[in-house]
Amino acid sequence: MKYSVLGMLLAVASSSLMAAEVEPTNSWVAGVSYMNLSDESDGVDISVGGVAGSLGYQFKSGENFYLVPEVRLGTGVGSDSFSLSGIDVEVELDTFIALSLRGQFEFDNGVYLYAAPTYANAEFTAKASYFGQTASSTEDSWEFGVGGGVGYRFSQVTSAELSYEQFDGIDVFSVGLKFNF
Question: Which CATH class is domain 25-180?
Answer without folding.
Answer: mainly beta
